[in-house]
Design a protein that fits this description.
17 strands, 2 domains, alpha/beta, 7 helices, globular, 28% strand, QueA-like, six-stranded antiparallel beta barrel, Thrombin, subunit H
Length: 350
C-alpha cells in the first residue's frame, strides 16, 4: 500500500495537556501559525494579526451554520434505561439521524422520553455504529425545546463544562442545524471582520451543517476504504456570483475551516463553477487531490489520523503539515476545537 493511503502516515505525538479545554477570554488572542504551503516556511503570530496577510479583493468564505443543543439525555419509555442521543442531521420534517448511546438497547419502535415528556423520540430505523433515525414528537417549537432540554455537543476530548454556550458559536452563526461548531471560525471577532471589510476584503457565506462526517474516526488502515458520512450544505446565488467573479479575476478565495473547504470543492467538482444549490456531500479530501475552489485555508489543529489532517495534508503536503504540527507542539500551541489556528497558503509574494 502506498504510504499516503496508510492511516498511520497521518499520526503525530500530542501531549494531552496541549488539548484546549476552555476557550480563551478573547477569541482573537489565539496563536496563529502561518504556513507557506509551497516552501514549508512557518511564522508564529497572534490571530488578530491575520489581517496583515490579506489584500484588497480577496474573498473570505465563512460557514454560518449555528450549533443546536443537540445532545439529549433521556430514558427508554418501557424500561427506563438511560439513553443519550446526538442529533446529527434533519432528514425531513421531524425525522432526524442520530447517534445513540448505547445503541444496542434500541430497536425500531423504541421510544425515548426526555425531560418530563416534552420531547419524545421514536426509533424508525436502526443502522450500524449506533446510528438511528428517530421521529421527534413534541408540541411547540423544537429549537425552544432543545434549548431547554439539550446541551451543546462539545467533543469527547473536552472535559471541562462549557460555561457560556455562545463560545461554541461563531460570532456570525446564523442557520441552526449543526451538531458541532465549525471551529476555525471561533477566532474571528466582529472587529476583525469589520477591519477586513474596510481594507477591501469581500466576505461571503456558505452553510454546511456539521455532522458525523467531520469528526468520525477513520477505522480502516487504508484511508481509501473510509466512508465519509454525508452532510447537508447550501450555497446562495449571491455567494456563487462573488466566487465565480473572483475566479475570473484570479483573486484569492480563502476558506475558513474544512467545512467551508469541503462545501466549495464539492460544488466546483460537480458543476465546474460555483452554483446556487442545496445538496449533501461526502467528499473525502486526502493527498493526491487537486484543489479547484480555494487558494488558502484558515483552520485549527486536528486530531491525529483524522480526515481533517488528511485534508490539510492534501493542501500543504503531508511533510509540511507534520513539521508544522511538531513546531506547534514544541511551541505549546493549543490544539483542537478551543485551540489555536493555522493559516495555510502561498505567502512568498506577501
Amino acid at each position: 500500500m502506498n504510504e499516503i493511503y496508510d492511516v498511520d502516515y497521518y499520526d503525530y505525538e500530542l501531549p494531552l495537556e496541549l488539548i484546549a479545554q476552555v476557550p480563551l477570554k478573547d477569541r482573537s488572542d489565539s496563536k496563529l501559525l502561518v504556513l507557506d504551503r509551497k516552501t514549508g516556511k512557518i511564522a508564529d503570530k497572534i490571530f488578530k494579526n491575520i489581517v496583515s496577510y490579506f489584500r484588497k479583493g480577496d474573498v473570505l468564505v465563512l460557514n454560518d451554520t449555528k450549533v443546536i443543543p443537540a445532545r439529549l439525555l433521556g430514558a427508554k419509555e418501557d424500561t427506563g434505561a438511560v439513553i443519550e442521543i446526538l442529533l446529527l442531521k434533519n432528514i425531513e420534517g421531524d425525522i432526524w439521524e442520530c447517534l445513540a448511546k448505547p445503541g444496542k438497547r434500541l430497536h425500531e419502535g423504541s421510544i425515548i422520553v426526555f425531560g418530563n415528556g416534552e420531547l419524545k423520540a421514536k426509533v424508525s430505523l436502526k443502522k450500524d455504529d449506533g446510528i438511528v433515525h428517530v421521529e421527534l414528537i413534541y408540541e411547540g417549537i423544537l429549537l425552544e425545546i432543545l434549548d431547554k432540554l439539550g446541551s451543546m455537543p462539545t467533543p469527547p476530548y473536552i472535559h471541562e463544562q462549557l460555561k457560556d454556550k455562545l463560545r461554541y458559536q461563531t460570532v456570525y452563526a446564523k442557520i441552526p442545524g449543526s451538531a458541532a461548531a465549525p471551529t476555525a471560525g471561533l477566532h474571528f471577532t466582529d472587529e476583525i471582520l469589520e477591519e477586513l471589510k474596510n481594507m477591501g476584503v469581500i466576505i461571503t457565506y456558505v452553510t454546511l451543517h456539521v455532522g458525523l462526517g467531520t469528526f468520525r474516526p477513520v477505522g480502516v488502515s487504508n484511508i481509501k476504504e473510509h466512508d465519509m458520512h454525508s452532510e447537508v450544505f447550501m450555497v446562495s446565488e449571491e455567494t456563487s456570483n462573488i466566487l465565480n467573479e473572483a475566479k475570473r479575476d484570479e483573486r484569492r478565495i480563502i476558506a475558513v475551516g474544512t467545512t467551508t473547504t469541503r462545501t466549495l470543492e464539492s460544488v466546483i467538482n460537480k458543476y465546474g463553477e460555483f452554483k446556487e444549490c442545496t445538496e449533501s456531500t461526502n467528499i473525502f479530501i486526502y493527498p493526491g487531490y487537486k484543489f479547484k475552489a480555494i487558494d488558502a485555508l484558515i483552520t485549527n489543529f486536528h486530531l491525529p489520523k483524522s480526515t481533517l489532517i488528511m485534508l490539510v495534508s492534501a493542501l500543504a503536503g503531508r511533510d509540511n503539515i507534520i513539521n508544522a504540527y511538531k513546531h506547534a507542539v514544541s511551541n505549546k500551541y493549543r490544539f483542537f476545537s478551543f485551540g489555536d489556528a493555522m493559516f495555510i497558503g502561498d505567502f512568498n509574494e506577501d
